[in-house]
Amino acid sequence: KQEVTQIPAALSVPEGENLVLNCSFTDSAIYNLQWFRQDPGKGLTSLLLIQSSQREQTSGRLNASLDKSSGRSTLYIAASQPGDSATYLCAVRLGDNTDKLIFGTGTRLQVFP
Amino acid sequence: EADIYQTPRYLVIGTGKKITLECSQTMGHDKMYWYQQDPGMELHLIHYSYGVNSTEKGDLSSESTVSRIRTEHFPLTLESARPSHTSQYLCASRGAGAPEAFFGQGTRLTVV
Asked: Is the peptide bond before B8 cis (omega within 30 degrees of 0)?
């Protein structure tokens, strides 16, 4: 059974720091991995999607990497800002015929001025 | 930009009431999903649909039901709400062959 774990569970940093959020999954047979942002009490905003054949994706200050064989993905946030404060979720899409996303519990990030 | 909408955003309702949570998308996506998220916990899939008249149960057992009469619409119904149904419900959709899932803003349900 696929399990997704995110470390750390919470992170509080001063503005300007570069951050690394970690996501690990137990079954490497994934179709893709997606990083989301969730603001308190709100839905999910898709940040980056990495196909299983890809190693990384970049969008602005965000860079996500994928090492499928070791079951790990990292989300790198450069020059963090208070507006980056949110919960960051990773989700893997299984490699079988299902379209299900399996989510981690998230990393709650707070960036203070 | 994703065009998927959920209503209501917040709902507080008494035990025993029937409720329907609405989810609509204007992207013509065939695949739609309902996830449930308790505070501080991960999202769990409770229902999904691959197209009109197609509905399946997800990994997490739920007393809710869904219907898919139109492509753009995927409502979730609770016939008799209970406090244990208090949670956030998130709707998502994905186009056929497309890798990325898009989520709505969620409905935060409180049953008192």
From this structure: yes
